[in-house]
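Subject: alpha-L-fucosidase

B.,
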Amino acid sequence: MLRQSTPDVFNPTALDTDQWAKGFADAGMAGMILTAKHHDGMALWDTNTTTYKIGSGTWAKDRIAAGLSADVVRMAAASAQKYGIKFGIYLSPWDIHRDPAMPKPNLTGTIYDEPQIFGDNTTGDYNDFYALQLTELVTLKYNNGSQIPLFELWLDGASGSETVQTFDWAKFRDIIRGNQLGAMMWGHQGVDARWVGNEDGYTVPTNWHTISRTQDQTHYEGDELQTGVRDGLYWTPAESDARIRDGWFWHANEEPKSVDSLMQMYMECVGRSVNLLLDVPPDTTGQIPEEDLQTLLRFKEQRDAFLKRPLLTPDLNASASSVREGDSQQFGPANVLDGRSETYWAMSDNETTGVLEIRLDGTYNIDAVLLQEHIALGQRIGGYTVDAGVDGAYKTIVNGTSLGYKRIWNLTSSVEANVLRLQILQSNATPLISSVQALGTKK
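Prediction pasted inline below.
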C-alpha cells in the first residue's frame, strides 16, 4: 500500500475478527495488537481526521448498508474481549499519506488528495493531527458504551522518508495517560517499553530493563537497545517484534516458520526477559490462514511440553547463606518455591552475594532452569551461577550476568542432580529472588 491506493483496495472477502482472537487465545497468546494505521496512513476505524480511511471504500459502505459494522478496530476489540485476551493498538507516527516527499499519483484529484502536513517545514501541525487520531483511539467504546481498555499503544518510530518531523512525544504520552492509565506506550526507546534492536525475535544474553534516554533524545543503535543500560535512568524493558512468516504482511508465496524456529525465538527472547510480539497477518479474505493457526497451536504444544515439567515443589527443603532479619516467613528461601510473585528470598541488607540451596526428593535429570528476580523492586543482579550437585559434588550448569523478570536456561544436555545451588556473585543492591524452578524428569 506504499503506492497509496484508494480505500477500495481494502476488500477482504470474509473478514472475521473472532477467528483472529479465538486463534490467538487457543494458541496461548496473552493479547493482540491491531495495526489501526500503518505507514501508508489509511485508517481502519471511523476517524473524523481524514477521508483516507476504509470507511470511504466500497467494502465498508456495503457492510454499513447491510447493517453491519465496518469499524475494524472496534470489531477486533470486541473479539478480543469475547475470547479473553488483551487488546492493543499500533498507530504509525510516520504517515506517507501526509508526507510531501512521498508521491501519490493514484490520489491526485480525488477526495483523498489531502494537505501535506507531515514535516516540520509544512503548513499545518502534524502533531495536532496525530494527537486527534490517538485521542479517538484511546477513547473508543464498545457498542454497549463502555470504554475499550488498551494494554499497549505501539508507536513505531520507523520512517522511509527524508522528511524531518519532530514528534511531540510528551503530548502523546499525556493523551495516553489521561485516557488509558493501564496502557503501555511502546516506542524506539520508550517511554514504557523499548525496541529490542532487531525484528527477528531474539536478544543477547545480557539484557537490562533500563536505559538512559527518552524518545526525544538521540536514538540508541540496535546493539545498545538489546543490552540496555544497567541502572539506567528510565525503566524501559525491551519488547521484540518478529514475524511468523518472512514478511510483515501476508504474501501467497510465503510459509509460516517452523515450530522449532519459533521455539528458538521464544528461548532467545522470552527466555531472556523480553516480551515477544509476533506478527500474524490475515490474508486477502480477512482471516488468518489455517496453516498459520496450526503452527501457532503446535508452538503452544511444544512450549507446554517443555515448560510443564516442574521439579521443584513447595515441600522441598531450601536453605540460604543468610535471611534478612532472620525472618524466614517473610524473607526465607522457601519463598522461591511457593509460586507467588509477591514473595521472595532476601539476604541481610548489607549483603550482595550469597547462596541458596534446594534439596530435591531424589535424583533427577535436569535440562532447564528458570530464575526470577522480584522485579517490582528492580533489576539488581549482575552475576550468578547455578550448580547441580550429586552427593556433595557440584557442576556449574548456568553462568549468567543479568537476571531480571525471568530467565529460562535451556541446557545443551541434561544433568543429574539431587540438589541445586544458586550462587549470587554480584548485585548492585541486596538481591531478591522470587522464583527458582528446574525442568526435567526423575531418574
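The chain has a mean pLDDT of 95.

T.
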